[in-house]
Amino acid sequence: MNDYIVRATAADHSIRAFAITSKNIVEEARKDHNTSPVITAALGRLLSGAAMMGTMMKGEKDLLTVQIQCQGPAQGLTVTADSAGHVKGFPRVADVALPPNALGKLDVGGALGLGVMSVIKHMGLKEPYVGQIALQTGEIAEDLTYYFATSEQVPSAVGLGVLVDVDGSVKQAGGFIIQLMPFTDEKVIDALEKKLSSVKSVTSMLDAGMTPEDILQELLGEFGVEITEKTETRFACNCSKERMEKALISIGRKDLEEMIKDGEPIEMNCHFCNSHYQFSVEELKKILAQAKKR
Ligand code: ZN
């Protein structure tokens, strides 16, 4: 099954909701970056949340970046998503190993520790929108909930889950975002809060075989939920040798000349997908010639 995001409305359009199944995205990220289980969970939750947030944007060229900088052993995570369901991301430290937390779960909050989450939206305006919060628990879903409430003033419930198999691969991944419009009835809010406090975790819903549609039906069925959109989503990186060449040109003549003098081929790595690009001395000479033309 391919990964996808569904968008829905409920309670006479006073609730909007998103749900995602993202097993392939998270497994791709795990393989690209060779992440340990706790980092697979941390990065996977952020990728899943950001993929849904990306589809909230309208423009074809709109781009969302969520960056976490933190004091825990993970040090940070960076994820980028567009409005068409393409998402990519990388951890600062991929191999953090921690004992399980008090609940016996992967200790994502412990891996992140104290820190800051920044949400940067490029939406065709000159200046990007930037919202920033202090991490609340480092468990990511709670942090995004806090971000929506404080930076966007939208009361939200966010659930994110990654289930890592015994061999370290991704067994399940997904999540949901439920948002209240300013005109949501108090009775609906109370009933929704009650519902959310009684449901199982995202990972157990996914592990029980529930689809994103099933999850929204479970959470919002009593409010007359209606699926309005379904978008395929995948891990996608737009790096290429040409882009790496441009990056090399921008480092400047002096550094290029030194690389050529060393007489060794160089390797450039893409942060987002960990692809390697080799440049021979001959290629570096051509790049230097281009840099001189600028
Ligand atoms: Zn790449």
Task: Give a list of the ligands.
Answer: zinc ion
Q: Any idea what the radius of gyration is?
A: 21 Å
Provide the structure class.
Answer: alpha+beta
Task: Record the strand order, biggest sheet.
Answer: 7-6-3-4-5-11
State the end-to-end distance. 48 Å
Tell me the strand percentage band: 25-35%
**Main beta sheet:** 6 strands, mixed
Shape: elongated
Instruction: Please report the number of helical segments.
Output: 10
One letter per element, helices H and strands E, the order comes to EEHHEEEHEEHEEHHHEEHHEEH
The helix fraction, in percent, is 25-40%
Outline the low-pLDDT stretches.
none
Described by its quaternary structure, the protein is single chain
* Secondary structure: number of strands: 13
The average pLDDT is 95
Secondary structure layout plus pairing:
Layout: E1 4-10, E2 15-21, H1 23-33, H2 37-56, E3 63-70, E4 76-82, E5 86-91, H3 108-112, E6 115-122, E7 129-134, H4 141-151, E8 156-164, E9 170-180, H5 186-198, H6 202-207, H7 212-220, E10 226-232, E11 234-235, H8 241-251, H9 253-262, E12 266-269, E13 276-279, H10 281-293
Parallel strand pairs: 5-11
Antiparallel strand pairs: 1-2, 1-10, 2-9, 3-4, 3-6, 4-5, 6-7, 8-9, 12-13
Helix pairs in contact: 1-2, 8-9, 8-10, 9-10
The structure holds zinc ion.
Essential attributes:
294 residues, alpha+beta, 5-stranded antiparallel β-sheet, 13 strands, 29% strand, binds zinc ion
Architecture overview:
Helices cover 37% and strands 29% of the residues. The chain has 294 residues and is an alpha+beta fold. The strands form 3 sheets. A 6-stranded mixed beta sheet has the order 7-6-3-4-5-11, with helices on one face. Strand 8 and strand 9 form a beta hairpin. The longest helix has 20 residues. The radius of gyration is 21 Å and the shape is elongated. The N and C termini lie far apart (48 Å). Bound molecules: zinc ion. Zinc ion binds next to loops. The site of zinc ion (ZN) has 6 residues, from loops.
